[in-house]
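Appendix B.2, paired examples.
Example (i):
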Amino acid sequence: MAIRAFLLFLILLVSSYTTFALYEDQVGLMDWHQQYIGKVKKAVFQTHKAGRKRVVVSTEENVIAALDLRHGEIFWRQVLGVNDVIDEIDIALGKYVVTLSSGGSILRAWNLPDGQMVWESFLLGSNPSRSLLLTPANFGADKDNVILVYGSGYLHAVSSIDGDILWKKDLAQKGIDVHHLVHLEESGMLYALGVGDRSQFEAYVINVGNGELLKHSSMEFPGGFSGDLSLSTSDKAVALDSSGSILVTISFVGGEIKFQEVHISDLLQGFSGVAVLLPSKLAGMVAVKINRSLLFVKVKDEGTLEVVDRVPHVEAVSDSLSFAEGQTAFGLIQQDGGKIRLTVKSSDDWKTHFLKESIEVDQPRGLVHKVFINNYIRTDRTYGFRALIVMEDHSLLLLQQGAVVWYREDGLASIIDVTTSELPVEKAGVSVAKVEHNLFEWLKGHLLKLKATLMLATPDDVAVVQRMRLQSAEKSKMTRDHNGFRKLLIVLTRAGKLFALHTGDGRIVWSRLLNAFRNSGTCESPRGLKLHQWQVPHHHALDENPSVLVVGTCRHNSDASGILSFVDAYRGEELNYLAPVHSITQVIPLPFTDSIEQRLHLIIDAEGYGHLYPRTLEAVGIFQKELGNIYWYSVGVNNNLLKGHVVKKNCKPEIADDYCFESIDLWSVIFPSDSEKVIATSTRKLSEVVHTQAKVVAEDVLYKYISKNVLFLATVTPKAIGDIGSVIPEDSWLFVYLVDTITGRVLHRMSHHGCQGPVHAVFSENWVVYHYFNLRAHRYEMSVVEIYDQSRADNKDVLKLVLGKHNLSAPVSSYSRPEVMTKSQSYFFTHTVKTIAVTSTAKGITSKQLLIGTIGDQVLALDKRFLDPRRTLNPTQAEKEEGIIPLTDSLPIMPQAYVTHALKVEGLKSIITIPAKLESTTLVFAHGVDLFFTRLAPSKTYDSLTEDFNYALLLLTIVALVIAIFVTWIWSERKELQEKWR
């Protein structure tokens, strides 16, 4: 009886490990999450009330956020849709954040303390126009003031309490482009000022109370207007003529329009060229940009102009800020390299400087793009000023008292492309002191884990265990680990800046604003396109660092000059850059490397010529050996044309150099524009590893068709191009194709009647999964197509295999007509999908999981077995043993399958998977406005013990078993002795 009781206690002790699961102490071991907001467009400070001071910003990523002015942390954040672009932002009633978005058609009020939406109004209009938001300055919480909004050609008055539309006025029919709204609070009148036909100045006087048009004045200016109007005072505006050489002062008091012209050459001696009027709102003056200098011109009461000063090298000017006793000030930024000079001047007296200081930026961040200023009261009761600065690399800085108080790397909210780099190998040599320290920490850690297992640990002990686990994981070391979990994520942002993120904790190892992607005389509007691994040295070559190739263009058109930049992956140094070069339409990484491990790349230009990189004789020699075997394809989305090409010979000497090659068209597939429109393509990763070609199914063997030259392509009927629901099911068709890109043969074609895009697809091994919308069922669907090679069917005959008549050794040609068989199935799916990816492992042995980016900005892991086309309602016993799941019409979504758990990757754009050295594990990186990284084991960690494995409990179990064996042996001996004495 005693033995049974002891064994029962032992079983309870062992099983207690699964019930005592303090998962909070595992937070941060395998994943990390970072929040960003993007490049700031507008900022409004809220510092007048007691409590924590904050600044409310809107960004280019359609984010509204409240930031702590002390540390730069996010108080709250709201991310709007991709098409819901924020136009204007302001603070009303001292407690609401008012935003205008979607071209002036949506007005919202958000609660300032917590960011919850209070009300929302939809403002309908007829014609696209600029968006204007006016919140009167005398807002009070005790009365219902109006918010004035102009957008889509209509002027609306909206209640500030509940968002009700009080009245609206159609100005689109008048043919006016409204530039400014001026509210005269004492008279209750509103001026709507604008330009009609680029030469006609229009002024509308409207009653704010009821929207009645009181007066309309119009006057033509013979020289015409260019650019925007600048409102200097409540009754005067300044504009530039169409030639950019004359400043025009426009007076509109009482609706009476008067013009006064002044040549800029009369104000500034030696003026030449074209001037630009800045949109900054300066009290009583305007700023005119001439080359790299700013001309500040004061507008006098009688409408005449006077030059106040000309300041060189001004990068940004803030709007005027009103503070105590009716004083107004504005800030301007001058920059010399990494040195920023901030000057806050009085708008009334130019000689008065409220602030003048210089700040040295710690690292190159480019030029200053925007500046917003705010005042505060110092301890000596004088006024101080702080400046919020937006840099060229999209970072955000707060300057105060001559120093950078905080900065945010918000360029990471606009990642374009991602690649990875291995870390350097750890060098041998460990000190004795380090070994002794590690031994002490090991003993201490296991003692604490034992206390936690026996439920004797205090909260402080649990915190220590969590901290020690984070340290013992060595996740943040700058060397490779045995399992391949530690890597560098090299990311390229829209600003042309490279970041290296450590996969262990997400910290920035280095960052570099690339010189090739900055505005210059040769490249005015550079933009990044792709990242490619350029040099990947063998792990024995410790003296060589890996490098990456950054590809971009100077403009957005297809024939724009290209940019190539080569960057060291360990140090972030820009080794070399080529700009401008030939146009770039496609970059083809080739499966060849030279003697120093540089990978060959063929870059295709707009004329179809291929340019080989690196530009060395060795690379040309390697490429010449494979000439005629380099195939590529192009998809013309606009002209519905799919074409295959092959590189044949060098370009003619009069056209280009020895590194240029001509290509010829092999085949083309034309989709009739009146019946089909290309909307999506997908292909396999070049680096994907397939463990085996054979797939055992029940009592048969199927051979996967694993050619890397297969392209998935989806088309829809022209009527189905619009949004979901814009067409009836009878007029909507979705067609999918599997095309061999070497021969142009269509291996498989399938149609879905009554279905519509958008289509998101992922291609892996011999299968493709794609997501679309079923108009008939009013639900989303996911379909799977698997393709098998029938030419290998004879290999299943054992007799032929013994007699040597099998075709395993038969040569395989890409031009041979493949004998393929396809299996397909469709399932309903609950969620809208933003992107789809698939897990990838080192050897391709581990089961696959689909990683689905949902409309809720989360990542869902779905086992590929649920998308098996061989699923049936009643699978046979053999199929059950194989792992076939019974057929259901919908794909299951389990809460435990969310990779991101309770977190959201706001603005999710893409999911990248990277294989680790450990076969069971894949690394997952998801990015949008936020960043998220984690490790996944689709088939569990069958080849290793987890990091949270309880070694202390294992040791305790072994000791208990040894004691139990010893005790039971003693009891057995005593019992046997007693029986002998009987």
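Example (ii):
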Amino acid sequence: MFFLDNMERSMLVLPTTMLTEPNQKRWHMAFTAIYCSRAFSTPLKKPRKKSPVSSTRVVIDVFEPHPCFPKIDQSVLTGIVKQKNLDQLGKYDGVEGLACGLETNLKNGISGDAEDVSRRNEAFGSNTYRRQPAKSLWYFVWEALRDPTILILLVCAALSLGFGIKEHGLKDGWYDGGSIFVAVFLVIAVSALSNFRQNRQFVKLSKVSNNIQVDVVRNGRRQQVSIFEIVVGDVVCLKIGDQVPADGLFIDGHSLLSLNFQQVADGFGRMLVTSVGMNTTWGEMMSTINNDSNEQTPLQSRLNTLTSSIGKVGLLVAFLVLVVLLIRYFTGNTQDENGNMEYNGSKTKADDIINSVVAIIAAAVTIVVVAIPEGLPLAVTLTLAYSMKRMMSDNAMVRKLSACETMGSATTICTDKTGTLTINQMKVTKFWLGQDFVNENGSSSLAASVVELLHQGVGLNTTGSVYKSISGSEFEFSGSPTEKAILSWAVLELNLDMEGLKQSCEIVHVEAFNSTKKRSGVLIRKKGENTTNVHWKGAAEMVLAMCSNYYDVSGNIKVLDDFERKKFDQIIQGMAASSLRCIAFAHKQVPEQENEGKIHIEENCLTLLGLVGLKDPCRPSVKKAVEECQYAGVNVKMITGDNIFTARAIATECGILKPNQDMKSGAVVEGVEFRNYTPEERMEKVDKICVMARSSPFDKLLMVQCLRQKGHVVAVTGDGTNDAPALKEADVGLSMGIQGTEVAKESSDIVILDDNFRTMATVLMWGRCVYTNIQKFIQFQLTVNVAALVINFVAAVSAGEVPLSAVQLLWVNLIMDTLGALALATEKPTKELMEKPPVGRTKPLITNVMWRNLLSQAAYQIAVLLTLQFKGEAIFNVSSKLNDTMIFNVFVLCQVFNEFNVRKLEKKNVFEGIHKSKLFLVIVGVTIVLQVVMVEFLKKFADTERLNWWQWGVCVGFASVSWPIGWTVKWIPVPEKPFLRNPKAM
């Protein structure tokens, strides 16, 4: 659209190099149209009156259509849907005319070959949208600079640099403060790089999670394609729970209802795609979404609280050190290198006083550096990023970081049946007509009238479809697993001809299937006849309740009295006891005149057509996976829409229900029974329930709420749109990657890519592994901080100096701890993790076992290092500088040896499985090499002296004692009741 003022004598000139060739042509056409318009509208030889303002405007709509689609303009297509412009649609002769212009057959779709798809993408764009630009590395550097911990360290470095220059001059003073600056910026770099990699990981996972499959019709064949491969002109098939993949026009369907965010809430239908990608409402909305992946998990929040508490303790200790040292100095209790009193009242020079005070402040600053555990947030990031990547390879895609750790605390799993516990490959194995069982080859003996009605009940009351290959020898069935199984049975056993059936019958009205009604109905009119037929299909006991008659194998209609009804109930229960899903078909003929006015499908006085039993075998590994979860102290509850007999049979086969458990024990209930309990009864009985049959989405949500109120950490699986409330309510929502609707996936925290309960057990084990690995690092980190804090505090107060400099402590807290976090994060899950009860909501992050381990190691390190601090020079006959280097070296090597102790928090043999942890050994080796470089080659930076072989041996000897100490203290029992109760524990 070009809007130009009629009275303005202005020329709009664009450099041709800025325009593509099609746009250059459009501008030339626009200029020609404007010029001609002015030429013919201006009177000849008539003087032009000056007018200050004119409201006359010329609107020129110039477009150059794509050569392949000369009658179609994308802007018009977009406007038709967004503005619901029926007038514009009428200019194209409706949906049929628009489809003709798009070269689409409304029945068979587009050709769908590579060339056709390519030209449609070229003409109308691809079904992709502009994402928010990925955050750069500098963004995360800036975020790190804003961290309070980093700011404190920078202030400390600046003070230390200023004091160092003041005391030692510019050249030598740089090594006091400049080294800290280097170390701090190294902290920033490592943190920024880690977060940058994590962000890229989320972008990658987001692309995977958005790769949705949708049903389209191409070349007469219904098939699944990626949402990104949808093109303008495609015919898309929609059903409940689907996400509408693009903008389009309704072709046909029944009871189709779409809610906000373009999700199908009810019914089914077909749509002609008119706009894709950025031309759609969805594309515009998605392009504005800021996918910020820097969410903070509950564990990270708790760690931040822990870090803050430690920092406050450090500041308090630093303040005490500052006060004590100042008092000692100004009371004359300190001496210089020559043994003279440093402060002698008015006789002491001002410069000497300033230098001494600067040194005292530097010591206090060092205490702050010691106290801040810089490695904790980084450890969590590394652990979660590594675990997420490994879980992805195990068919579990983590959408929310918190799910990694929360899953390890799960106490109850509420699981679906179909597709999760079973393989979701249904097949009709039993067929009853009346009270007679019909064998596979017995369909030929059925009455023709009954077979015809069955054809109508199966072929027209379905959201599935049948595609027959060109050779005519093979069939392809699409739809839900249940629909495909029934269609396959009808086509292969009852010789159903779908094409012929659709040509001979007209669908008048449809009642779509949903999880509440458990059935679907259709009202059809046979062409050329004056009657219509009602067909219902659904859960056997529900359809049976609507019937008052039934057909026998000869096609005779018989009355369904109470005695006969009990026989059918026994047939249904018998199939259910064999783990079969029982589906019933019912029929009723309705006179034409009864359909005037509001259309209604009769739901009573029906005639039962037949019963089919569908077998969906349990997955081979599911029983073992259920037993593993139960062994780990996690309760597994099955919530299904199947009847109570089928549910009980499947649950028993999977190991969820024990053979001696039945309805009387309260282990098996129906949804209606559960929802009719009083709140007190529900809270009392919810723990005993193992199976809930004939459940609605509300029943599932209600159970999750009750379990959480009782203190359980609940994981829920779901695959349908109606499962979204329960998935959101749960502590961890797990959706199915294959059969799950997009609504379910968007509401979940983890997507199970293979729809297998075995993967859920793996996720549980990974969750516990993540939680345990972080606990290991907390123990490792706190041992470092407690030991360093006590050593520097005691040394500063007693001797007026600190043995470990700020640079050395940053080296330990950053490099050693970062590598330590990476080493411990790469520990793979083991079966022993499933031998412990779940953590739940109340257990503290730091357990009594961890306190025992870290305090014993910290006590040993404090004892050794303080001995070296006060007696090391005399014992080993070394200089003060060399003694300080040995203290630093022993301290670092103690952490290296303690890293092995931390591998097993409770087991005495810390070397178990060490040969499988190759990455752990590599990282430990790298740590040792870096320490050698630090001591031997970075003398000025680290303020160290070179050590000889004997001195290295002494350092290693002191550090190696950590192993027997770690083995010994694990014999000491600790009470289960926590020493320190954490009120914020999950």
